[in-house]
């Protein structure tokens, strides 16, 4: 097994305020496979991703990539391990504001001896004509393409994506998901992607459902959908509809009690 997440436990706070966020989470991901972590807000998805990415620490359990376990390493080896194995894509891009697209991606290349070819990657990302712009001159989708480039240029074994389309409209979201799918197929990258969107999960090889810090189910996705065929608008429409309904009900209540 390529990526092995074994019995992860994590709590925040002390004494009476102690709150267990992850209660023994285990799953595996094969090389070149995409796993989606699906679950409601507060179920522990981002905490888990941050632990796998070495951004946060765990209380119990272990994370292994290709039989290397980060918990057994010195700080120096841990940094080298992160550089070699991990790329991170966040919802809010986190680009360096005064560097161009090309320079932002190049930052990732300096972290690896085995990096991908920058010119080829700029073409794969569809960013060739924007390469000399700085982030404030880009659309949200172009900024997210740049952040995917920065994460992937070092040719990591594992790409971690935390709600990568959370700040984007449905058309741009689809383009970004198509790009993530293309990267996975071209470079055989393993991907763990966090989302609360059931429709996005349909593109995964494996769907892992989390609830209250526990794994509720792990399913191989036999009816996998290509990113280009995902129906994202339905979810957004339902979300907008529920939001409007909530506002209407609140207004009725306010009228009633005022
Ligand atoms: N640094 C922290 N200190 C204390 N509690 C935290 C910390 N980080 C997360 N939590 C708590 O852990 C729980 C899980 O948070 P997490 O962000 O992992 O959930 P999530 O499933 O990613 O939610 P969302 O979809 O809303 O981002 C939440 O109740 C949150 O308040």
TrEMBL record:
This is Putative ABC transport system ATP-binding protein. Residues 3-237 form the ABC transporter domain. SUPFAM superfamilies: P-loop containing nucleoside triphosphate hydrolases (SSF52540). The keyword ATP-binding applies. InterPro entries: AAA+_ATPase, ABC_transporter-like_ATP-bd, MacB-like_ATP-bd, P-loop_NTPase. One of its GO terms (molecular function) is ATP hydrolysis activity. The keyword Repressor does not apply. The lineage of its organism: Bacteria, Bacillati, Mycoplasmatota, Mollicutes, Anaeroplasmatales. PROSITE patterns: ABC_TRANSPORTER_2. It comes from Anaeroplasma bactoclasticum. Gene3D superfamilies: P-loop containing nucleotide triphosphate hydrolases. It comes from the Bacteria.
């Amino acid at each position: 097994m390529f990526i092995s997440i074994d019995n992860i436990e994590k709590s925040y706070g002390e004494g009476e305020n102690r709150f267990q966020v992850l209660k023994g989470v285990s799953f595996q991901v094969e090389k070149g496979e995409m796993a989606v972590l699906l679950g409601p807000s507060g179920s522990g998805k981002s905490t888990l991703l941050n632990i796998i990415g070495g951004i946060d620490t765990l209380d119990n359990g272990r994370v292994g990539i290709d039989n290397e376990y980060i918990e057994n390493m010195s700080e120096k080896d841990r940094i080298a391990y992160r550089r070699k194995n991990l790329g991170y894509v966040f919802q809010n891009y986190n680009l360096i504001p005064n560097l161009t697209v090309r320079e932002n991606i190049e930052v990732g290349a300096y972290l690896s001896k085995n990096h991908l070819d920058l010119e080829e990657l700029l073409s794969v990302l569809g960013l060739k004509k924007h390469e000399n712009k700085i982030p404030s001159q880009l659309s949200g989708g172009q900024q997210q393409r740049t952040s995917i480039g920065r994460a992937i240029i070092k040719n990591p074994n594992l790409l971690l994506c935390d709600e990568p389309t959370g700040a984007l409209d449905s058309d741009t979201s689809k383009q970004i998901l198509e790009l993530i799918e293309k990267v996975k197929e071209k470079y055989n990258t393993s991907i763990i992607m966090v989302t609360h969107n059931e429709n996005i999960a349909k593109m995964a090889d494996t769907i892992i459902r989390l609830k209250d810090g526990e794994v509720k189910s792990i399913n191989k996705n036999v009816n996998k959908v290509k990113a280009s065929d995902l129906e994202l608008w339905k979810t957004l429409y339902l979300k907008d509809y529920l939001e409007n309904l909530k506002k209407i009900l609140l207004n009725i209540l306010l009228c009633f009690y005022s």
